[in-house]
């Protein structure tokens, strides 16, 4: 669950009565008589109540809770990545899904108070969109191939963009997406219009080309912002290579970061076993510990792979 800051924003969103407030309930009770989703909506309404609600929740706007929504999405992704199917994992997954659901309910409540739409409208809109985008499931439409189905999907999305006065395939790619995810999404959009290589080999050549440009910028003493631009080109090319290989670069990098963190903790433990802090060692000694951590990790992985499953 997100952390609520001790200092409230100075400017608070004015409260206006919602279009359809929940039915009256015991003001002291936890709304147990309601269905779970209705109970959550009633709790949200109480939190936003101008008289008896929570000052922090009343202070929020659609914009101020966006960072928390992103945080909850990342926390959910982390839980899914670590999920081993254990009871504790199941509880954590359920709770993180609830935290993210609460963010949707929060945004819908803010919109409802402004007379724009409510949670039912949100659910109705996504339901309509799913039915509209899957005529091969909910109507009598048949596609001759996966490619034809994909083309129909993209045509429907293009129509939706046109209805929103968006003319480019790039128009509705969220700016707030993580950089690697946004890069891949833009590359996929371009590929659907034919702007793509047929196989990964030319992408590898592009990576080498971009690496050479970074080195040239460094050698020429280019300013930091120019070098950063060239490094960005390398990362974009690498993400494109990952896409061609069927690898999600965001997930791959997240996994490699977790692996590095685990190895670094092992390095710290190994240094402590020798009676030293990791920071007291020179780089060569630290590198030796890192290689030992790698050997232990691989040894443990091989042991798990050869265990008798019975």
**Number of strand elements:** 0
Q: What CATH first level of the largest domain would be assigned?
A: Mainly Alpha
Structural class: mainly alpha
Q: In CATH terms, what is the fold-level topology of the largest domain?
A: Helix Hairpins
| CATH architect. name of the largest domain | Orthogonal Bundle
Number of helices, counting only DSSP H or I runs of 4 residues or more: 12
What kind of sheet is the major sheet? none
Mean pLDDT over the residues: 86
Give the low-confidence spans: 2-22
CATH homologous superfamily (4th level) name of the largest domain: MazG-like
Backbone CA Rg: 26 Å
Described by the principal axes of the CA atoms, the overall outline is globular
Termini Cα gap: 39 Å
The run of helices and strands is: HHHHHHHHHHHH
Q: What helical percentage do the residues reach?
A: 55-70%
How many domains, in number, for the residues?
A: 4
Q: What do you see in this structure?
A:
This protein has 310 residues and is mainly alpha-helical. The protein has 4 domains: 36-130, Orthogonal Bundle (Helix Hairpins); 134-172, no CATH class; 173-247, Helix Hairpins (Orthogonal Bundle); 250-298. The protein is 65% helix and 0% strand. It has 12 helices and no strands. The protein has helices spanning 36-47, 55-59, 66-82, 87-113, 119-133, 135-138, 146-163, 179-192, 201-219, 224-244, 249-273, 283-306. Helix 8 (179-192) crosses helix 10 and helix 11 crosses helix 12 (283-306). The radius of gyration is 26 Å and the shape is globular. It starts with 35 loop residues before the first helix and ends with a helix.
